[in-house]
Specification:
With 53 residues, the chain is mainly alpha-helical. It has a domain of 36 residues. Helix content is 53%, strand content 0%. The chain is flat. 0% of the residues are buried.
């Protein structure tokens, strides 16, 4: 396994280990996924630039 493959495997294991804790925390993930209106519109979408006044 290359160094980068090892890094990605370790990183994935780290995130996978945290996912269950976050899912059980009650963030309302199912509701956020099923109803786009529940997601805030204040986030910058990928590829958009933040405009400064």
């Amino acid at each position: 396994m290359s160094t980068s493959e090892s890094w990605f495997a370790d990183n994935r294991a780290n995130w996978d280990g945290r996912a269950a804790v976050h899912e059980a925390s009650g963030y309302g993930i199912d509701e956020l996924v099923s109803d786009p209106a529940r997601r805030g519109g204040d986030r910058v979408r990928r590829g958009e630039r933040v405009r400064r006044p």
